[in-house]
Amino acid sequence: MTAALANVARAADPARPLAADPLPSWNDGAAKKSILQFVAGVTTKGSPEFVPPAERVAAFDNDGTLWAEKPMPFQAFFMLDRVKALAPQHPEWQTQEPFASLLKGDMKAALAGGERAASQLLMATHAGMTSGEFEKIVSEWVTTAKHPKTGRLFTEMVYQPMLELLAYLRANGFKTFIVSGGGVEFMRPWTERVYGIPPEQVIGSSIKTKFELRDGKPVLVRLPEINFVDDGPGKPVGIQMQIGRRPIAAFGNSDGDLQMLQWTAAGPGQRLCLYVHHTDTNREWAYDRASIGGLEKGLDEARARGWTVVDMKADWKRVFAFEKP
Amino acid sequence: MTAALANVARAADPARPLAADPLPSWNDGAAKKSILQFVAGVTTKGSPEFVPPAERVAAFDNDGTLWAEKPMPFQAFFMLDRVKALAPQHPEWQTQEPFASLLKGDMKAALAGGERAASQLLMATHAGMTSGEFEKIVSEWVTTAKHPKTGRLFTEMVYQPMLELLAYLRANGFKTFIVSGGGVEFMRPWTERVYGIPPEQVIGSSIKTKFELRDGKPVLVRLPEINFVDDGPGKPVGIQMQIGRRPIAAFGNSDGDLQMLQWTAAGPGQRLCLYVHHTDTNREWAYDRASIGGLEKGLDEARARGWTVVDMKADWKRVFAFEKP
Question: pTM to 2 decimals?
Answer without folding.
Answer: 0.93
